Amino acid sequence: MPTSATGTSSNAAQPVRAGHLASGFTLLEVLVVIVIIGIITSMAVVSVHVLGGDHEMDQEAQRLSAVLNQAREDATLQGQDVGLRVDARGYDFLRYDTRNERWVLVTDDPLLRERTLPDGLVASLRLESRDVKLAARSGGDNTATATALSPQVVVQASGDLVPFEIVLRRDGTVEERRIAGTADGTIAVHKGDERATG
Fold first, then answer.
1. What 3-state class would DSSP assign to 46?
2. Closest Cα partner for 118 from 58, 60, 43?
3. Is the separation of the CB atoms in 93 and 161 below 8 Å?
4. What residues does each domain of the chain span?
5. What top-level class would CATH report for the domain 55-191?
6. pLDDT of residue 93
7. I want to staple 96 with a disulfide (CB 3.0 to 4.6 A). Which of 48, 81, 90, 156 is the partner?
8. Phi, psi of 142 (to 5 degrees)
9. What is the C-alpha to C-alpha distance for residues 186 and 82, in angstroms, rounded to an integer?
10. What is the pTM of this model?
11. Which residues have a Cβ under 8 Å from the Cβ of 114 and sit 6 or more positions away?
12. pLDDT tens digits, residue range 30-72?
């Protein structure tokens, strides 16, 4: 005989039928689980995109590295110094005119043409472990300032260059790419705080 909290009970225990006791999930529970899975999945997709790297920054860093390597080879083959001028929003190349003893903007070579960084990318420059204050980009009329043109990075006709580090950053993030050149002419791209060894 069953007992209750107040004593014994005279009611006989009724058998439980399998049809009355639900042993599954309600529609509401299933929908809540689906919504939670959807939220977690969308967060994972967003974080993979954000943490997966900045492909545009990688592309710009690789492009600058490749152009600098080609400029170094051209300087060696032609026996003429080539200079790189960098500002926060882009870069261009100069050649040293030995006849007039001045730097001249390269306008006849599509590889060494003036380039503007994509929106949101900003460049900074370090020479000999010191930050260089970059001038604002001119309005495009470089003939008026032809006598004042001077590069920050010089690739010598011997293939050697002034050691430098150009850092590309995305506005609003801490992600960066470093294009580093050493005195022996080696140019490499590094992510974040990676440094060249040797």
1. helix
2. 60
3. no
4. 55-191
5. alpha beta
6. 94
7. 81
8. -90, -10
9. 15
10. 0.66
11. 90, 91, 92, 105
12. 999 999 999 998 887 666 555 556 788 899 999 999 999 999 9
